[in-house]
Please model this.
Amino acid sequence: MKYERINEEYNAFITLTNIKTSNGKLSGIDFSVKDNICVKRVRTTAGSRILENYKPVFDATIIKRIKKEGGRIIGKTCMDEFGFGTFGTNCAYKQPKNPINKKLVPGGSSSGAGIVAKLADSHVAIAESTGGSISCPAAFCNVYGLTPTYGAISRYGLICYTNSMDKIGLMSKDLGLIKKTWDVIKGKDEKDSTSLDIIRTDPEVKRIGLVTDYFNHSEKGISNSVRDYANGLGIECEPVELKLVHEALSAYYILALSEASTNLAKYCGLRYGMQEEFDDKTNYEDYFRKIRSKYFGEEAKRRIILGTFARTKGYRDKYYLQAAKVRTLVIQEFKKKFEEYDLLLAPTMPCSPPSFEKAKTLTPSQVYALDLLTCAPNLCGFPTLNIPLQDKPVGIHLIANHFNENKLFEVGSWQK
Amino acid sequence: MDIKKISELARIKLTKDEEKKFEKEIGDVLKAFQNLNKVQTKDVKPSFHVIPTLNESRADKPEKPLTQKQALQNSGKTERSYIKSPKIK
Model:
């Protein structure tokens, strides 16, 4: 389907563009870019009104690498404001719709990426995940979604949500195109001190652990379908207990929102983004407050306030520091399992995508709980791959140890 | 949680309705997160970074920086080569 039509029918883009480049390894592939990744001279809003008029003066490293190898950039995809959302219903612009059924949410926060990946041929959507923002829309939109090891792809030029968890990744209905792009864009970038060269590991997969808690917290139909898929792989699959998955959800939100509240402090109507008139009588702080209150959306305000609270005197140790310690234990627990199993497997999301009507009835606490299955690997920087299940808005989630993306590609290719 | 104080710290002005709504919703979320404090973390080191790395610095070589015009072009309020802000009183 043509990009203009995808946009008219599904509101997948915030800005359409057409940047052609010279020939290279990615010639013939179209790329859309999540709107929190900077593309030189192209409006980049991060799904927020506060950045409605922002045009970066530089390319993110990943964009430079794609352009250098001949990829065509066709537009900036819609997203939940700054990545704050599970359903794709927190974008300040038009409401994106699920490509399988327009009455259903597309999943978030990389909503537009999921839609375009499903509907366009020879296309790779550049997306980003902090707590599940690639896996969730990949499952709901029925496409492959790779969330790499933390640091494997440079974050230079990414508008930060949570520095210690943000990861740029890839979505497409063609896993081969994801692999081809991955080979070009991964690796150390001197402009991102947390970026890393991927250590090559053995791609052989002999044993898979099925995460019991994740199956138990999913709708029965989804659990059964994913279990059937695992049994059909023809290798040893057995149940695995992880004790800290619920605590991982809490730790994820505390750390993510604490970091987000500091990252979003820079939006104050001066250096970039939306601004208003002021005169000699205007108070400095009142001006900040006015801009932030007017141009941040409801979920952004809620998360900034929660994150600010978790860092205040008297609560910092109880929430922020404790969450960082729990993250250490969750990493250790997963690492121990990876000594026994090559991969862990579970449903990607515990439910099918709800209708827009149903989504409106859920409280923030209920929505946050739906991230249970995706947040632990994201909290710990483990790579994951969403594999689409036939033509259903349901995904199979493969989780690997750090740097073991090749195991994900290996098993992902078996289904094909 | 004192919603007025925290929103003041976050430089966000909430309406009365927003204050009431957020206080309830954030209260519910924090209640759900209480399980964190049941985890025994004595002698556990916090993970601020998920993959152990040493301090990284790039080579000390000059690069072409942004021009002044480029650096200021997203700010609507500039005067000479400065970004203009309201007075700090």
